[in-house]
Structure formats: structure tokens, C-alpha cells
Amino acid sequence: MRLTANVKLFLGLRIDSKLREALAQATPGDRKYFDDPNSPFLRVVSMGEDQWIGKLFDGGTSPTEIEDISRNVSSILNRIAHGGRHAPSLMRIFAVDEGNDGTLIADDGYRTSS
Fold first, then answer.
1. Do 9 and 92 form a contact (C-beta atoms < 8 A)?
2. What residue spans define the domains of the chain?
3. Concatenated DSSP letters for the chain?
4. What is the pLDDT along the chain (114 residues), one digit of tens a residue?
5. End-to-end alpha-carbon separation of the chain, Å?
């Protein structure tokens, strides 16, 4: 086993039906947070049958910074989908790799669309 900081990490939540509905009904002002596949805020990606929304960040990030990122993700999701379940304890972190075609590849081998 070896460590590398050259990989991207994704911290996010699985999109359930309530969150999917809120994303579909988001105002144009709120859509800027997740609509762009290269958004600096949030990205919507697919992994297997599920869709996830979250933030991409660099490997080697400190735990304090990861905590800040999770609060930021929660804050944006609370703005877009009021009353939803966006607690950091529900979030997951996945290692990703950009494939030759620019798609993200989650650590379980699924290609993700962004």
C-alpha cells in the first residue's frame, strides 16, 4: 500500500427523491451552485444507480479543512433544499480519478458523469 496526494476526493450526499425534487425546482440563482459540471461549489455525479451531490477537493486535505468543506456543502444544500437531511454525518468521501475522457472514476470502478 502507498499513499498519494495526487488524487481527487469527493465529499457528498446521495440524492434522494426529496433532494432530487428540490434540485429540479431550484431558482436560477441557486442553480449556479450545482448546474455547471466544473462548478467550484457542488457537482452532481452518478455512481452506479445512484446520483450524488457534493464537492471535489484535493487528496492530502487536513481533517479541519474537510470539516469546513462538509459544513459548506451542508450550507449550500440547506439554501437549495430547505428542511432536508444534509447533516455532515450523512456524507461520504470517495476517492476519484479523472479518466482519459475527463469523467470521474470512483474508487469502486464506476464511471461517474459530472
1. no
2. 8-112
3. ----S-SEEEEEEE--HHHHHHHHT--HHHHTTTSSTT-SS-EEEEETTEEEEEEEEETT--HHHHHHHHHHHHHHHHHHSTT----GGG-EEEEEEE-TTS-EEETTS-EE--
4. 888 888 899 999 999 999 999 999 999 999 999 998 888 999 998 888 899 999 999 999 999 999 999 999 999 999 999 877 888 889 999 988 666 444 555 544 444 444
5. 29
- Name beta bridge partners: 44: 53
**What is the Cα–Cα distance from 21 to 25, expressed in whole angstroms?**
6
Give the Cα-Cα-Cα angle 109, 69, 29 (nearest 5 degrees): 95
Q: Which of 83, 109, 81, 84 is nearest to 95 (CA)?
A: 109
Residue owning grid cell 446521495: 14
Amino acid at 29: G
